[in-house]
Amino acid sequence: MSLVSHFNGLYYAGREKFTVQFSVSTHGLIEFELGERERVAIALQGTVLELIGDPGVTLQISWSGHDGRHALLCGEPEIFDKLLSLNIPPPAREHISELQARQHGRLKGERHRVPVYLALIAAFFVGAYFTLHYSAPLIADMIPYEWEQKIGAMAFENYQVGKKTVSDKTVTDAVDAIIKRIDQFDGADIEYQVAVVDADMINAFAFPGGYVVVTTGLIENADNPEQVAGVLAHELTHVLQRHSMRKLVRQAGMGVLIGIVFGDVSALSQLIELSAQLDSLSFDRDQERSADDGAIEIMTAAGLSPRHLAAFFEKIQKADELTGNIPELFQTHPLTDERSKRVSAAAEPEQVFQFDLDWELVKQAI
User: Fold this and answer.
1) What pLDDT is stored for residue 190 in this prediction?
2) Which of 54, 111, 148, 221 lies 20 to 30 Å (CA to CA) from residue 61?
3) pLDDT, tens only, 66-100
4) What are the boundaries of the signal sequence (predicted)?
5) In this structure, are residues 184 and 302 in contact, taking their beta carbons and an 8 Å threshold?
6) Could you tell me the CA-to-CA distances from 251 to 140, 144, 279 in Å, in that order?
7) Is the pTM of this model over 0.70?
8) Which DSSP symbol is given to 42?
9) Where in the chain are the domains?
10) Rounded to the nearest 5°, which phi and psi values hold at 193?
């Protein structure tokens, strides 16, 4: 009874390809089944053996039949041990030994190259990350303001889908008065558009291009309009310093960055698609610190004490500690003790301004 070994391989019959399990008998007969009925048997003596592929470690056993060329491919190194155990002529044995040595050398070389490949891949991704990280601010600043307005308008429109906006003039006029005061002292030529959204969450944010969202939850939890002004001054600073655009550019990836550099309008379409994520983007510590500084500068120029913003931070932080629920505002704008202390320590304005608003009436209107 002959001993048989089994190997996995790919069988090519012309252009057709089949995954097979084949055996090599001690008499040099290669056999495998195709489906349930057809069985292929070919003598090793009538075949040609060679290494193929890249890096050349796959054994190809090929032969010609009446219906064309056939080939059986096997990548298992053990196939050579089986072939060398057969009773075959010396020339054939020498050829198989040579192929085995060549395969062994290439496999060994591949094992040594794997760490190099991994290092090159890692270097590529690290390089891409740093390129994206450090070039995003520069490239974001290259985006035309018309693009920024379109991105912000789309994000502003998408955010309001399915949400109820407040139209009561007592509320909208109060928010408009706050925005107009900030607009006078923010140093930017932007015409802000504001929507007050009926939502319990304590939040406010500004999209690129000057599109502002204020939630009723923010108004209800603010002790006075000056606190809301502080939050909005912070949010608008993010827009003025293009923090949102920088985050968006980083998320877009290298392809869009290249498109922006060369003025490819398709890059705008991709940025607009990503704009739906703008309301949930988090800012890093440097950006938050910079937005705090911008808010302090705007508030001081507008005659509003920065301590109103600090007081609001402290109030919401205490509520968070009591309930364990992180306010929406702090989920995307993490508050640290250092930030709170810096705002509290800011200089007071020389001339104090107070909004002529009945804040309790505004809350009741909500």
Assistant:
1) 86
2) 111
3) 888 999 999 899 999 999 999 889 999 999 999 99
4) none
5) yes
6) 12, 18, 14
7) no
8) E
9) 4-108, 141-365
10) -120, 130
**pLDDT score for 327:** 55
Burial (CB count <10 Å: 0-12, 13-18, 19+), residue 306: buried
C-alpha 77/C-alpha 79 separation (Å) is 5
CATH 2.30.29.30 corresponds to the domain 4-108: yes
Q: Which two tokens stand for residue 144?
A: 């035309």
How many residues are there in the chain? 366
For the segment 225-270, what is each residue's pLDDT rounded down to a tens digit? 999 999 999 999 998 988 888 877 777 655 555 555 445 555 556 6
Buried b (16+ CB within 10 A) or exposed e, 228-240: bbbbbbbbbbbbb
pLDDT, tens only, 143-187: 777 878 888 888 888 888 889 999 999 999 999 999 999 999 998
Q: Is 238 helix (H, G, I), strand (E, B) or coil?
A: helix
Q: What is the DSSP secondary-structure string of 272-332?
A: HHHGGGGGGPPP-HHHHHHHHHHHHHHHHHTT--THHHHHHHHHHHHHHHHH-PPPHHHHH
Long-range pairs for 65-69 at CB < 8 Å and ≥24 separation?
Answer: 67/13, 67/14, 68/13, 68/14, 69/14
Alpha carbons 265 and 304: distance in angstroms, whole number: 42
Q: Is the dihedral of CA 256, 260, 262, 263 positive or negative?
A: positive
Place of tokens 């930030």: 339
pLDDT at res. 2: 46
Residue with tokens 């690129």: 208
Q: What percent of the chain has pLDDT over 70?
A: 76
The pLDDT of residue 138 = 63
What one-character-per-residue DSSP string does 141-204 give?
TTS-HHHHHHHHHHHHHHHHTT-PBP--HHHHHHHHHHHHHHHHHS------EEEEE--SS--E
The tokens describing 300, both together, are 């001081």
What gap in Å lies between CA 301 and CA 299, rounded to an integer? 5
